[in-house]
C-alpha cells in the first residue's frame, strides 16, 4: 500500500507542477478525469498541457497540476500518480513549475 498523504502543513501556498505522461493510447481528457476522480491529492486545478509526438512516434501528454498545498516533492508526486495510473498511464517526469 502506498502512503499517498501529502504534508499540507509545509506551506500555505499552492504547489504547481508540470507532469509528462509517457506513451499512452488514452486521451488527455481520460487521463485528466482519472487523476481528478481517483486521487486523494489536494488538487486545486488540473488541465491539459501540450501533446507531443516523439521521434520514435510515441505520444506524450503534458499536464499542469496545482495542489492546494506546497507539501509534495516532484518525486513523491510521481510515485503517487504512477500508483494511481497503474497500466492506464505512467508519469515519466514531474517538475516544479512557476505559478501562472
Observed structural traits:
single chain; 100 residues; alpha+beta; Alpha-Beta Plaits; four-stranded antiparallel beta sheet; globular
What does this protein structure show overall?
By secondary structure, the chain is α+β, with helices and mostly antiparallel strands. It has a single domain (9-96), classed as 2-Layer Sandwich (Alpha-Beta Plaits). It is 23% helix and 33% strand. It is built from two helices and four strands. It has a four-stranded antiparallel β-sheet with strand order 2-3-1-4, covered by helices on one side. The longest helix has 12 residues, at 74-85. Mean pLDDT is 81; it is low at 1-12.
**Biggest sheet character:** 4 strands, antiparallel
Q: What characteristic shape results from the CA principal axes?
A: globular
Tell me the CATH architecture: 2-Layer Sandwich
What is the count of helical runs? 2
Distance between the termini: 34 Å
Query: On the 0-100 scale, what is the average pLDDT?
Result: 81
Gyration radius, rounded: 13 Å
The CATH class is Alpha Beta
How much of the sequence lies in strands comes to 25-35%
